[in-house]
Structures are given as structure tokens and as C-alpha cells.
Design goal:
Blueprint lengths: L2 E4 L6 H10 L5 E3 L2 H5 L3 E4 L5 H10 L3 H5 L5 E4 L1 H5 L1 E4 L4 E2 L4 E7 L10 E9 L13 E7 L1 E2 L6 E6 L3 E8 L2 E4 L7 H12 L2
Parallel strand pairs: 1-2, 1-3, 3-4, 4-13, 5-7
Antiparallel strand pairs: 5-6, 7-10, 8-9, 8-11, 11-12, 12-13
């Protein structure tokens, strides 16, 4: 079936789809459980809040379907956070495939929340998803909540505190930044995912 984008209401779906088209991939936009189950690759985009994001997945009957996927899955921005156990945002129970609790950035002098703009993404261990990513590559972020560092962290970003900006747990992967808005770095990482 190729690549599918889960139509869970994320406002970045169009831009992710366009980024994939630039890589020569036509991704089907779907909320059909069988189409998602039989896809070669699944991308869960998302912009917004954890509570409504999970409510939409429950409404579509996709929570157990996504949890049971065995092919490569990529969560983008909120989609990455939804892969975790829980989010402090609305005390939301998430998909639970990554053993982490998503936490809000604490208020600090000089640190604006949400974290918006370009920031460095530093590899923490080798993984095919990070092929070609260097210590001085930058990506575009927009978020108020972040996944703390853990064994699942492939890359990290410093925004007053270090957080996991690329994760992997089994066949589930996530990028906290917007690869579709991150120029060559984002395109390279999306291509790496498509080649997993």
C-alpha cells in the first residue's frame, strides 16, 4: 500500500503530504483501519493539543490499531508525543508505545514557551533514521510540551533543558520538530524514514 498519513485532524497534514511529494512519494490520507494496517509505512502527523488528538484517534477507532502496527511508524510533532504513555497536557493518556511522560517546559527566565523557531538537533546514537545528520544540523520547532531524555532518544535538542527531539522504540519513531518545514535536514530525515 505504500505510505499512509493518518487523518487524525492535524493541521500539518497538507504540508507533510507536500514534503513527501517533493521526495517523489504520494501518501494516501486515510482514517481507515485496514488501509493503515496494510500500509508499508505509517505517518501520524499532528498539531494542537494531546487531549483532542487522542479523542480523535478514539473516535476513529484507531488507538488499538496504531498500537498493534509492526511496520515503521513515524509520529511528527504532536504525533510523536501521542506515541508516549501520557501527556501532562490535560493529563491525557496516550498510545503508550514509548515509555515516556510528555512534560510542559517549565517557566525559566529568558525561555519563551512555546518553543518556536530553529534549533540544533544533535544525534545521541547511531540509527538509520539519523543517517547524514550532523552535530550542527538545525530543524524548525513549535511546541510547549516535550519528551524527556531516555533510552528511546536518538537525538536531542537543548532549550534551557535537553529533551528528546528524535525517538525510536521498536518500529515506532518520532520527530518533535516539523521535518516538512526544516529544509534539507527535514527532507533528509523523511527520506531516511521512507527507506527504513
Amino acid at each position: 500500500m505504500g505510505v499512509v498519513l493518518v487523518d487524525a485532524g492535524g493541521t500539518n497534514i497538507g504540508s507533510v503530504r507536500y514534503a513527501l511529494q517533493r521526495l517523489g512519494v504520494e501518501a494516501a490520507l486515510t482514517s481507515d483501519a485496514e488501509t493503515i494496517r496494510t500500509a508499508d509505512k505509517v505517518i501520524l502527523p499532528g498539531v494542537g493539543a494531546a487531549g483532542p488528538g487522542m479523542a480523535r484517534l478514539r473516535e476513529l477507532g484507531l488507538v488499538d490499531q496504531i498500537r498493534s502496527l509492526t511496520q515503521p511508524v513515524l509520529g511528527v510533532c504532536l504525533g510523536m508525543q501521542l506515541l508516549c504513555e501520557r501527556s501532562e497536557e490535560g493529563d491525557t493518556t496516550c498510545l503508550g508505545v514509548v515509555p515516556a511522560i510528555v512534560r510542559r517546559f517549565e517557566d525559566q527566565p529568558g525561555r519563551r514557551v512555546p518553543h518556536m523557531g530553529w534549533n540544533r538537533v544533535r544525534p545521541r546514537r547511531e540509527h538509520p533514521l539519523l543517517a547524514g545528520l550532523g552535530d550542527d544540523d538545525w530543524a524548525y520547532f513549535v511546541h510547549s510540551y516535550a519528551v524527556p531524555m531516555g533510552d528511546y532518544a536518538l537525538a536531542s535538542t537543548d532549550y534551557g533543558d535537553e529533551f528528546a527531539s528524535v525517538i525510536a522504540q521498536g518500529n515506532f519513531h518520532g520527530m518533535q520538530f516539523h521535518p516538512e518545514r526544516s529544509a534539507k535536514v527535514g527532507a533528509r530525515l523523511l527520506k531516511n524514514f521512507l527507506e527504513l
